[in-house]
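--- STAGE predict ---
source: upstream dedup step, 1 unique chain passed
mode: sequence only
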Amino acid sequence: MSQLFGEVAGGYDEARPGYLPDIVEAIRVYDGRVPGALVEVGAGTGLATRTLLGLGLRTTLVLARRPA
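--- STAGE serialize ---
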């Protein structure tokens, strides 16, 4: 996390509000069916990741890297 957000990573993670609990149910019933797996694109501090893992589904994270 600190490599992506630098020195402000901890403060950002603490200050940013979490996701509403309803998002988990919305994902479960999206398109009238329960997804078999999820892909999170642009995983950053882990805030969304923690919520997604609560679904109990196979989850793949795709991290973005800055060009060197």
